[in-house]
Amino acid sequence: MSTKNEYDCAKCPGYCCSYPHIEVTREDISGLAKHFGLDYKTAETRFTKYDKDEKARGLRHRKNEHFGSACGFFDAEKRRCTVYEVRPEACRDYPYGKSCGYYQFLSWERKHQENKTWIALTNK
């Protein structure tokens, strides 16, 4: 049985970075703090916010022309994570299996649209 992933993040526009709540742990915040040369509290305040509905801390977002908003560490031009080496655990573990539903959708649409760069827009 193959354990090869059935998706390629390098060919994806970063849809998962637009999820409204990207949960972070204390270890994630510590990693970001170290990466940016900040103390824990400054990194927590600058990069995260507490979500009352989720009852957990998540990454801050900023406006994004395609998704409405996306993770503050998402480079909208390059469509890549700017802190990939120290990305939070939730991001490292995503999509929690061999396949990514969004990548499957994107691949199918690109094939049927006959456009290798087609991106579904969620914000008009």
Polypeptide structure, described:
The mean pLDDT is 86. The strands form 3 sheets. The protein has a two-stranded antiparallel sheet. A two-stranded antiparallel ribbon has the order 3-4. It has helices spanning 26-36, 40-47, 89-93, 101-113, and strands at 48-51, 56-59, 61-64, 68-71, 74-75, 80-81. It has 124 residues and is α+β, with helices and mostly antiparallel strands.
What's the overall average pLDDT, rounded?
86
Q: What is the CA–CA distance across the termini?
A: 42 Å
Radius of gyration: 16 Å
Structural class: alpha+beta
Give the biggest sheet: 2 strands, antiparallel
User: What percentage of the residues does DSSP assign to strands (E)?
Assistant: 15-25%
Helices and strands in order, then pairings?
Elements: H1 26-36, H2 40-47, E1 48-51, E2 56-59, E3 61-64, E4 68-71, E5 74-75, E6 80-81, H3 89-93, H4 101-113
Antiparallel strand pairs: 1-2, 3-4, 5-6
Helix pairs in contact: 1-2
